[in-house]
Write a structure and sequence with these properties.
With 339 residues, the protein is of the alpha+beta class. The chain is built from 11 helices and 18 strands. Helix content is 38%, strand content 27%. A 5-stranded mixed beta sheet has the order 3-2-1-9-10, sandwiched between helices. It has a 5-stranded mixed beta sheet with strand order 13-12-11-17-18, with helices on both faces.
């Protein structure tokens, strides 16, 4: 009685192929995959040894026989074959044994992608097993995921801060009116922490440790009470392991340049916004999505910079993939937002 053949045969999936994480939404089921976009390979044969969470565990701990690769960099495919293998693995995991029919896939791309990069994404998805591939801009998918009426003649500004890019877009009438896509986002902020600790404390830390520091004590503005974090790495003076305590005010200095760049990109997008849509944004405010939206005080900093209200979306990490899910539920309605 509860068995539905059509549900079993339907394989529509939405993919947020991110620099940091890949999320997959299966129509009728919701988000079924949320894993790091990382592949561990055999150095000689280039065969995948681990993908996703298990590959991330190996990051920074590789031996000469293992290479850990992030196949998506700055929001676009850097390693074509590795991306294909990763997608195939995640799609298989998402659909389990439902692979009777090849899936239709809605996949997100940054606003600034070139035609060549779009083709790389499309071909990777097709080779990984897709029947039809639809592309959508990340900020548009985020707006749909939040539940904004993107088809209305009302302006909405969305800032999506991912791992590789920060996407800023003003949306109205199912289209993007003005946008900015900058390669300053989560990864760049992690790298700023690595460089800062090297310079200030002669301590070398890995990317994973830098991310941990950013999440624990990172901020975009002065905190009511400064907080501390213990981190370990390799001392560059005598090349032995060393542990230090870092303060949130130090890490704020390390992140300043990146945060300033995001604020500047928001300013530039607002300057290019037509007056009627600017009036809408004054009423509705700016909505922030993506992992970077969780950086402490970034919403307050942007409020101060723009004199506009800034709202962090609920569950900002999944807005983009939830948007692909909504589109799959009613692909005819959202035809205009697809590329």
């Amino acid at each position: 009685m509860g068995f539905s053949l059509s549900k079993w045969l339907t394989n529509d999936i939405g993919i947020d192929l991110g620099t940091a994480n890949t999320l997959i939404y299966v129509k009728g089921e919701g988000i079924v995959v949320n894993e790091p976009s990382i592949v561990a390979q055999d150095t000689k044969t280039e065969e995948p040894l681990a993908i996703g969470k298990s590959a991330k565990e190996m990051m920074g701990r590789e031996n000469p026989d293992i290479t850990v690769v992030q196949p998506v960099r700055d929001g676009v495919i850097a390693h074509f074959k590795v991306t294909e293998e990763m997608l195939r693995y995640f799609i298989k995991k998402a659909l389990k044994n439902k692979l009777l029919v090849r899936p239709r896939i809605v996949i997100c791309v940054p606003s600034g992608v070139t035609e060549v990069e779009k083709r790389a994404v499309r071909e990777s998805a097709e080779r990984a097993g897709a029947r039809d591939v639809y592309l959508i801009n990340e900020p548009m998918a985020a707006a749909v995921g939040i539940g904004l009426p993107v088809e209305d003649p009302i302006g909405t500004m969305v800032i999506d801060i991912g791992g590789g890019t920060t996407e800023i877009a003003v949306i109205a009438l199912s289209g993007i009116v003005t946008w900015r896509s900058i390669k300053v986002a989560g990864d760049e902020l992690n790298d700023a922490i690595v460089q800062f600790l090297k310079r200030k404390h002669s301590l070398l830390v890995g990317e994973r440790s830098a991310e941990e520091i950013k999440c624990s004590v990172g901020s975009a503005g002065i905190l009511g009470t400064e907080i501390q974090h213990t981190c370990s790495g390799l001392c560059l003076v005598n090349t032995i392991p060393k542990t230090i305590i870092v303060d949130s005010s130090e890490i704020r200095d390390a992140l300043k340049e990146g945060v300033d760049a995001i604020c500047e990109a928001v300013h530039q997008t607002l300057e290019q916004t037509p007056p009627e849509l600017a009036a809408d944004i004054i009423k509705r405010g700016i909505i922030m999505t993506g992992g970077g939206a969780l950086l402490r005080g970034l919403d307050r900093r942007l409020m101060k910079e723009t004199d506009l209200s800034v709202i962090v979306a609920e569950d900002p990490l999944t807005c983009v993939v939830r948007g692909t899910g909504r589109i799959l539920e009613n692909i005819e309605l959202y035809q205009k937002v697809l590329m």
